Amino acid sequence: MSSREAILAAVKKSQPELLPLPQQDYVSTVPGDVQRFSDTLESIGGKSYLLNQEEGVLEVIAKLFPDAKRVVSVDTSITVHYLHEYESIVHHSLQDVDVAIIKAQFGVAENGAVWVTEEELKIRVMPFICEHLVAIVDAKEIVPNMHEAYNRIGLAEYGFGVFIAGPSKTADIEQSLVLGAHGPKSMTVLIR
Amino acid sequence: MKVGLFIPCYVNQFYPQVGIATLELLEKLGCEVNYPVGQTCCGQPMANSGYESLTKDCNELFTKNFAGYTHIVCPSGSCVLHIKDHLHSQKNEPAAASIRHTIYELTEFLTDVLKVEKLNAKFPYKVGMHQSCHGERGLHLSQMTELVAAPFSKPEKLLRMVEGIELIALDRKDECCGFGGTFSVFEEAVSAKMGKDRVQDHVEHGAQYITAADMSCLMHMEGILKRQKSKVQVKHIAEILNAG
Amino acid sequence: MNHNGTKDHAELAEKFNRDEERVNWHDRTLWWIRQKRDKAAWSLGDEWEPLREEASRIKSHTLSNLSEYLQEFEKNAQANGMTVHWAADAKEHNQIVHSILSKQNIQQIVKSKSMLTEECHLNDYLKEEGIDVIDTDLGERIVQLAEETPSHIVLPCIHWKKEEIGELFHRHLGSPEGVIDPSFLTNTARVHLREKFLTRRIAITGVNFAIAETGEFVVCTNEGNADMGAHLADVHIACMGIEKLIPKRKNLGVFLRLLARSATGQPITTYSSHFKKPRKGQQLHIVLVDNGRSTQLGREDFRNSLKCIRCGACFNTCPVYRRSGGHSYHNAIAGPIGSILAPNLDMRQYKDLPFASTLCGSCSNVCPVKINIHEQLYQWRQVLTEEGYQPKSKYMAMKAMATTLSKPTFFNIAGKAGRWAMKLVPGVVSNQYNPWYKEREMPEPPNESFTEWYQKNRKKKNEQ
Q: Cα dihedral angle (A48, A52, A56, A62), rounded to 10 degrees?
C-alpha cells in the first residue's frame, strides 16, 4: 500500500462522525470606509495618499520618490514607467527596482491590506523585490472586512493572489519593529 | 439555609482559622452549618499528578460525607472545581452527580445563592486581590482577561462591602501564582519564580495584605513573603469578610 | 531526567532560571505581545468570541471529513498543475524533499519558516546529504547561525538579546563589532539573504492553510521571505501537515482575521500569499505529511489539538513558558500546544511536558480555535500514568497519599503527627531535600486542626 492509501485509510478510520460546517457564513458588522482603511494602513507602517482630481499618478510618484532611478509598472496607464519587456524579462533583474507601481483590485478597511493577483502583477516577485511599493486602488473599491473581501474574490481563477498590508517588516530582534526585512521598505497606497 | 461545610485537607491541617472564619461568616449570614467530621480531601493532589485512578476511595468517602446536602460550601475554588469536574461514585452515582451541582465556592455561594449585598465587616488595610486560576477560569468567579467580555468579580464585589478596605490595582490581574499542586515541587524553579513575580506585583502597588479565594495560592505566596522577610501578609477572603 | 539521559523540562527550566534578570526580560517581552494580542482582539469587539467559535467549528467539521477533503484538495491541486506527494512520517517527508532536489541536481536551497520541517528535522537530514539549507526568516536565520533551534514557533529567536545577535552577525556576516542597532542588523541580514534569494533555484516554504475547494494554499509572512524564495526559484516545494486543510476559500476570512491578531496583535500579516498554480516554467510540489496526525485524530480526548493554526498565542500567555524558555520543552513545538502534541509522537521522550503547567487555563482562553489545551494537559497526565510512563516512586507516594486521604482516622492522626513533628523538629521538612523549602518557607503548623477545633467548639454545642 502506498503512503497515500495508508494515510487516507488511517485518517478515515480515526476521523469522528461527520460534524456540520456552520450553516451560515459569518457576518461581520465592523464598518469600513476609506478613512478607516487609511488609518489602519498608517498604523501598520504603510502610507496612504488620496489622489485629487488634478493630480496624476506620475506627478505623485515624482513628488514622493524624487531620487528613484528605476521605477517600473506593468499597468499600461503608467506610461513612462511601463515595463514593455515584462514577458521576457528575467525576474531576478528587477532587484535594483526602486519603485514598483501596481494596480490593486480592492482594499480591506479592517486591516489595511490590498488584494492583487497575478493578472495585475504579471511578475509575481514584483511587489516583493522592489525597494518601495506603490499600489493604486479606487476609493469605491474599499471593502470593510475580510469576509467581504472573500465574498468579492469568490471562486475567481488566478495563479497567484496576495493580500499585501504595508511594507515588509520584522520584529525578530528584541521585538524592535524594522521596516524592510526582505521586501519593500515602504508601501504607499494611492487612493483615487 | 442548611449548609454542608467542606474544608480542604491542607486548610484543615494548616489553616484552621480559615475554616473557622468560613463557618462563622456563614452562621452570621443565617446559615445552619454542618461539618461532616469524617471528611478529608477532594482527591485533586493525586488526580492532577496523573493519578485520577487512585482517587476512587477518596471519591466514595466524599460522596458518603456530603450526600443529601442541598448546598455544600467550600472556601477553595480549586477543590470545588475538582469535585465539579471529576467526582464520581461507583456505590452512589446519583449522589455524586447531585454533589457536583450543589457544591459552591464560598464567594460564589455568598454572591449567587445568599445574594449578599451588605456585610458587617471592617478591614482598614490596603489589600491586593489574587484571582486564583481555578476559581476564575474554572468557576468563573471573575472575568478572564483573555476574553473579550465585560469584567466582573464576585470576590471583589464582596470585598468592596468591607469597611475601610482599600483594594489596590495590579499590573497583571489574573496571572497564575505558580503553585499548581505538585507542580510546586516537581517544577520548583519556575513555580518559585512565578510566585516571586506575583508577590512583587502586589508589593509594588502597596498591598499590606494579599487575599484570595484559594488558600493554596496564598500558602505558596506566604512561603515566598516569609522567605523575603516581607511585612506583607496573606489572608484568606473569608477572614477579611468575617473581620471586625 | 529523560530515559535517554537528556534533561527534562524541570531541569532545563531550572537552568534557564539561574539568570533571573534574563527570565524577567523574557517574561516581559512575551507579556507585551500578549497585551498586543488583547488589544487586537478587543478592536473587533463583540465579534472576537463568535469568530473563535466559528473557527473552531470549521476545524471540527474539517477534521470529521478530513479523508474526503484531502482527496478533494489533491484532485484540485493536481488540476492546478501542482505535484502532490504523501509522506507517512518525518523520514518519508525528508526523503521526498531530498529526491526532488536530487532530480534537479541541486545542493543549495532557501527555506522560509515551516514548523513542519522543524518537526521532521529536515535541516539535519539535508545537511547529512550534503545540502546547504539557508533559513530566510530573520529569526530562524539567527538561530541557524548559532546552531540552535527556534524557541518559539512565531518568534524563533525571542530568547536572543540584540547584543548577542550583534556579536553573532559580526562573526558570521561581517557586521562591525559592537553594532547592536536592530535596523542595522536587519539590513545586514537583508543584504546577506538577498544574495541567496537571487542565486538559489529551489525554495521550500511551509503552509498556513490549504483549501480543498480550490486546491490552493496560503502562506503568511511579515518579512516577505516565503515569496522572495518561491517567486525567484525554479522549483517551489511546500510542506504541510494534513491538518492544515480547510474546506472553502471563504473560510480564510475567518482564519486570517484571527491568525495575526492572536500571534502578534497585527490586524493581518504583511503578506497572505495564495499559491494556486505554478508560475510559468516553474515546478510546484506539495508534500502532505501525516507524521502521527492520523493517530492523534483517533484519540478522542486529544483530537482537537489538530485544530491548531500555529499562532503561538498560548506560548505568550503561558506563565510557565515565559519563565522557562522554549528550549526547556526539548521539542520543535514548545509551549502549551507543544506539550499536548509531543506526547502523541513519543510518550517516553515527552512524558514530562504535560506536567510543565499549573493548569491555569489561560492558554485555552487565548486559543483562536478554542482548543481545550489545559484540559488535554490534564488528560495526558492520566494517559501517561496508565501507559506506565511515570516513575514507580511517584506511584508509591501517590498511593500512600490516596490511602491516607481515603481514611479519616489515618488522615487525622497523620495530620496531627505531621504538625507536631514540624513544630518540634522544623528540620524534618525545612531542609535542602525539600524542593518547597528552597525558595519558600513552610506554613506555620497550628496547634489544632479545624476538625479538632470544630469538635471542641461546635459539635458539642450541636449535641447539647
A: -50
Any idea where the domains of chain B sit in the sequence?
Answer: 2-113, 126-241
Q: What is the pLDDT of residues B178-194, one digit of tens each?
A: 999 999 999 999 999 99
Yes or no: say if A71 and A99 are a contact pair by the CB < 8 Å rule: yes
Is C449 in contact with B43 (Cβ distance < 8 A)? no
Q: What is the pLDDT of residues C224-250, one digit of tens each?
A: 999 999 999 999 999 999 999 999 999
Chains that touch C (3 or more CB pairs under 8 A): A, B
Return the number of CB contacts < 8 Å for A and C. 241
Q: CATH code for C1-37+302-390?
A: 1.10.1060
Kindly indicate whether the domain formed by A23-191 is annotated with CATH number 3.30.450.20: no
Q: Is the pLDDT of residue C4 over 80?
A: no
ipTM for this model: 0.98
**CATH number of this structure's domain B2-113, picked from the four choices 3.40.50, 1.10.10, 3.40.190, 1.25.40:** 3.40.50
Chains near B with 3+ CB pairs less than 8 A apart are C
Contacts of C27 in chain B (CB under 8 A): 197
What does the DSSP 8-state code read for residue A174? T
pLDDT at position C461: 63
Topology classification of domain C44-291: Rossmann fold (3.40.50)
Whether residue B180 and residue C455 make contact (CB cut-off 8 A), yes or no, is no
Residue of C52, C440, C459 to mutate for B, most B C-beta atoms under 10 A: C440
Residue A121 CA neighbour count, 13 Å, CB half: 24
The angle at the Cα of C422, spanning C419 to C426, to the nearest 5 degrees, equals: 170
CA neighbor of C381 nearest in space, from B203, B143, B44, B191: B44
Q: Chain B residue closest to C353 (CA)?
A: B187
Q: Indicate which of A5, A24, A26, A189 best probes the interface with C, i.e. most C CBs within 10 Å of its own CB.
A: A26
